[in-house]
Design goal:
The chain is an alpha+beta fold. It folds into four domains: 146 residues, no CATH class; 63 residues, no CATH class; 43 residues, no CATH class; 92 residues, DNA Binding (I), subunit A (Orthogonal Bundle). It contains 17 helices and twelve strands. Strand 6 and strand 7 form a beta hairpin.
Amino acid sequence: MSEQPLPAAHRLAVQALDALDAAAGPGSGDEELVSVLTVCEGLVRRLDRLVVSAVAALSRRGVFAERGYRCPVAALGDLLGWERAEARRRVRAAEQVCPRVGLDGAQLPARLPATAAVFTAGRATLRHVEVIATILASPAAGRLSPPVWAGAEHDLADKATLYTPGELHAYGARLVELLDQDGPEPDDEPPAPVNELHPTRHRDGSGGTLKGRFEDAALFDAIATVLDATSAPLTAEDDRTTAQRQAAALAEVCGYVLDHADRVLPEGGGHRPHLNVLIRLENLESRARAAVLDLGGTLTPPELRRLACDAAVIPIVLNGAGQPLDVGRSTRTIPDGLRRAIAARDGGCAFPGCGRTPSWCQIHHIQAWEHGGPTARDNLVMLCRTHHRLMHHPGWLVRLRDGLPEFIPPTWIDPDQTPRRRPLPHLIS
């Protein structure tokens, strides 16, 4: 009986990789090692092409949508353990360099046919495809006539075989700028001001950075006026820099807003904004060695004592297993105290790989309410909207083990259905 194609391909691929591994062994010469590198790169590019082709076919067939995923990116992240950026790169390549199907069922060529040709031939990488797609999706490229746009795509695909992705991006941006000689249409209306702010938390939980710009003069002046009014030196001996005083002033203003949240802030995630301080029971008994904020930041003992002195603090005490001590009551509606306990345990969306904070999440009944599931701590899990919807679609299962949520993937993602759990830094001793 002949071997099935996929198992046979897997067996042969393992044999080939074993041979490459042997060729790169301790006894190999310099030239042989260099050749191993080039062979491996060629194989990686061919594997990328196979992956992109498979992603395109699955997307066309609606396989991911049938399994509860609105976009292939999230499905690939769960299936293959990719970061969202890696999954997005392959999905975008599939959309650009693979044949398409029209509304009438007819097969259409790839959006980037010249790029598809060099990618299929292994002369361009996934990153090259991403660069070309980004350049040709820019507003300037959108103003080019179809023949000029096609010519630019052909030129970029040709240069992809010679340039690194960074060099290709610089070349492509300049090329499109030269081709778009007329520029954007004149507009009597001034462009809308760009106002943006990006808070980024440090990975070690020690704080974060704020980066932003405000082109709206009124908004900027309002912020600058508040900072100016609250960042004056406290005493003649206050030797902090202006930047340090302004940082402290911004935090003080935000603290004041939180103190008066019932009058100035809307509800977030079904409850008023607040700061939760998570502290283990043993830490509390040993005079508070450490604590964690509900958004993930770590507090040192002096900071914890200062916060407890200066702010309204909601203590949530955890036992040795990281489980909040009992709060709330059994009811269909989630009481605020019970929500706080679930937020303290799960730290936001409990689904592996998700980073949504508690204010963006909902509470999910593991055993549905209509099927007799109680609104109790051991039957609730915190999920963002996307993963809450996924739990109501056949496939994924969620349960509590040792008092903490874990998720069992469907067999099409993991045939062994190995339970998965999101790391919770605030529970690490």
